[in-house]
Amino acid sequence: MKKLILLLPALLLFGCTEVDRDELMKNRAEVKPVKPIEVNFERLEKQKSELIELFSTVYVAPDYTFSKDPFTSVVDIYRQTQAEEEATLNPMLVHKLDEFKLVGILTGDIGNIAVLAVGDDSFYLKTGDVFSASRSTIIFIGQDFIKIRDNSKDIFGNTKTEIKDIKLDYLKDDSSKEKTS
Question: Which of 128, 142, 135, 127 is nearest to 100 (CA)?
Fold first, then answer.
């Protein structure tokens, strides 16, 4: 308790005296010499011109020119694209399915090969090959016929798939003779 009595007046004596804080702070802070800032005015001018160019509000109207006539018939466009496609394609893909005739079937170690003819042209096709303008695919090659998947399209682009058999050409002639006699 004696210590507390002595400590209290000492605290009042030192705590109530006013201290000049500005003078105290000046003594603590050391003044360091500062380098002057170097400004590159050429660079600032260049940046200024770039910013003006970037944020300029010059409006350029888009060019609205139409590439095709809106009154052109869809059927005419379809026919035109078909004609252009036929001119540049493989000769097997140009002719219609009805024009192809099965003139022979070759058998061997690798399987059967169908010999199809259109006019004077002959084509040797295996199972899975695509031919004709309608992109028909050979599914099976038998001894005297081939089975095909015919993909026909209408003018609207809808695809219709049919499985058809094509018999050897000489068998068709024999069957037609039998029917007529």
Answer: 135
Decide: 153 and 143 in contact? Cβ < 8 Å: no
Question: Can you say whether the dihedral through the CA atoms of 158, 159, 162, 164 is positive or negative?
Answer: positive
- The strand pairing partners of 113, in sequence order, are 106
Instruction: Quote the tokens at residue 24.
Output: 């105290």
Residue 173 has pLDDT above 70, yes or no: no
CB 159 within 8 A of CB 153: yes
| pTM attached to this predicted model | 0.47
Q: What backbone torsions phi and psi does residue 82 show, to the nearest 5 degrees?
A: -65, -40
Q: What share of the chain is helix, strand, coil (3-state, %, to 5)?
A: 40, 25, 40
CA 142, 181, 102 angle in degrees (round to 5)?
Answer: 25
CA atoms of 75 and 81, how far apart (whole Å):
10
Query: In degrees to the nearest 10, what's the CA dihedral of 128, 129, 133, 136?
Result: -20
| Per-residue pLDDT tens over the stretch 89-145 | 778 888 888 999 999 999 888 889 999 999 888 999 999 998 888 889 999 999 899
Which segments of the chain are extended strands (E)?
A: 101-106, 113-118, 121-125, 130-131, 136-141, 145-153, 159-167
Distances 24 to 13, 30, 63 between C-alpha atoms, Å: 19, 12, 74
Phi and psi at residue 172, to the nearest 5°: -65, -40
